[in-house]
Design brief:
Helix content: under 10%
Number of helices: 1
Order of helices and strands: EEEEEEEEEEEEHEEEEEEEEEEEEEEEEE
Structural class: mainly beta
Length: 329
C-alpha cells in the first residue's frame, strides 16, 4: 500500500507478480486530498483493510476501507474521535474479528478497537505534550484475537516536547487497562511499529538522528522486557519508516529509506556486524528495562461515517520477473 498527497495505491500480487492494483481518492477530498500515514491488514478470507489519513472538507480524517480479494471496495468509513478531525493516524492491525488503530488529535493520543465493520468496541485517549508529528511517528497498536489491545506511544520528560521514553499500555477488549509500562529507550525521534506473536509484543523503534533502531520483545501478560536489541546503521536526515512482522520462529524488520530487511531470531542470537548491500549494520544486545507507570486513560466518543471512493480503478497486473539482490547474514 502506498499513498501520496493526491491518491492512494494498493496492489495484491502472487509470488509470480500477477494480481491487481487499486488506485483511489475519497469523494469530497480537495486537491491535495490524501496525506499520510497509512497501513494495510489482510484477513484469512483475503479481504484487505486499509487505513488512510485523508483531507476531507479541509481537515485530516481517518478512513478505513475494506477491499475484497478481487479489488472491489466493500466500504470506506471515516472515524472521527470526540467530533474532531484526526491530525495524524497510524496503520491498522487485524486479529480474528478485531481491528485496532491509533492516532493523534488536540494534544491527545488515542487507541481504538473495532470489529471488521468498524463498529467501535472502545476508544481511549491520553494527554501528551508532544506535537502531532512526533506522536504519529512514535505510536502504534497491536491486537490479538481476544480483543486485547496494545498501544505503544512516546512520552516527553517534563513536558519538554522531546521524546524521552516509550510507553505501552495493554487494554482488554472492554478498554480496561491491564498494565502500563515505560521503557528507557534513548531520547530521539521515533518511527515505531508493533506486532504480536506467541504471547509477546514486539516493538521496533528508530532514533534516526543517531542511526540506531531498537527491538523489544515484551511479555504480553505483564509487560516485562524479555529481550532487547539495538541495530546500528547509517543515519538519515529524511527519517525512517519501520515495519515489523513476526512468526513464532523469526522477526522481520524493514528499515526505510535504507531498503534493508532484516530477519532475526526470536531468541536474539546472531549478534554481530554485517554488510548488507554495501551498508554496515551492527546487531547488539541493548539494556532496555521496564518500569510501571500509571497514565490516565479516558473514554472518548467516536463517530463512524460512510464515505464514497472516487476516481478509483483496478488494473490487472501481469506476472513479471525482476532481479533482486539478497544478502543472507
Amino acid at each position: 500500500v502506498s499513498q501520496s498527497r493526491y491518491s492512494g495505491f494498493l496492489s495484491k500480487q502472487s509470488a509470480s507478480g500477477a494480481g491487481w492494483a487499486y488506485t483511489y481518492d475519497i469523494a469530497g477530498s480537495p486537491s491535495p486530498g490524501l496525506g499520510f500515514r497509512n497501513g494495510v491488514a489482510v484477513s484469512s478470507a483475503g479481504d484487505v483493510y486499509v487505513s488512510s489519513q485523508i483531507n476531507i472538507s479541509s481537515a485530516n480524517r481517518l478512513v478505513i476501507q475494506k477491499i475484497n480479494s478481487s479489488g472491489t471496495v466493500q466500504y470506506a468509513k471515516r472515524v472521527d474521535v470526540n467530533s474532531a478531525a484526526v491530525a495524524y493516524s497510524t496503520g491498522v492491525k487485524l486479529a480474528g474479528s478485531y481491528l485496532s488503530f491509533s492516532g493523534y488529535y488536540s494534544n491527545k493520543i488515542f487507541a481504538a478497537l473495532t470489529d471488521l465493520d468498524v463498529t467501535v468496541s472502545f476508544c481511549k485517549e491520553v494527554s501528551t505534550s508532544l506535537n502531532a508529528d512526533r506522536t504519529a511517528r512514535g505510536a502504534d497498536t497491536a491486537c490479538d484475537s481476544g480483543g486485547n489491545t496494545y498501544l505503544v506511544y512516546p512520552v516527553s520528560s517534563g513536558g519538554s516536547g522531546t521524546v524521552s521514553a516509550l510507553r505501552v499500555v495493554k487494554f482488554n477488549s472492554s478498554g480496561t487497562v491491564q498494565w502500563n509500562k515505560e521503557y528507557n529507550v534513548p531520547t530521539g525521534d521515533r518511527y515505531t511499529s508493533a506486532a504480536l506473536a506467541g504471547g509477546y509484543l514486539w516493538v521496533v523503534t528508530t532514533v534516526y538522528s543517531t542511526g540506531t533502531t531498537y527491538v523489544l520483545k515484551i511479555l504480553g501478560t505483564d509487560g516485562t522486557v524479555n529481550l532487547s536489541r539495538s541495530i546500528s546503521h547509517p543515519t538519515s536526515t529524511d527519517g525512517l519508516s519501520n515495519a515489523i512482522s513476526v512468526t513464532n520462529a523469526s522477526v522481520q524488520i524493514s528499515l526505510e529509506p535504507l531498503f534493508l530487511t532484516l530477519r532475526l531470531s526470536v531468541t536474539g542470537v546472531g549478534t554481530g556486524s554485517y554488510t548488507v548491500g554495501g551498508t554496515s549494520v551492527t546487531y547488539s544486545t541493548a539494556s532496555i528495562t521496564d518500569s510501571t507507570v500509571s497514565d490516565t486513560f479516558s473514554t472518548v466518543s467516536t463517530t463512524v461515517t460512510s464515505e464514497t471512493t472516487s476516481n478509483s480503478s483496478v488494473t490487472t497486473l501481469s506476472a513479471t520477473s525482476l532481479t533482486v539482490a539478497v544478502t543472507q547474514v
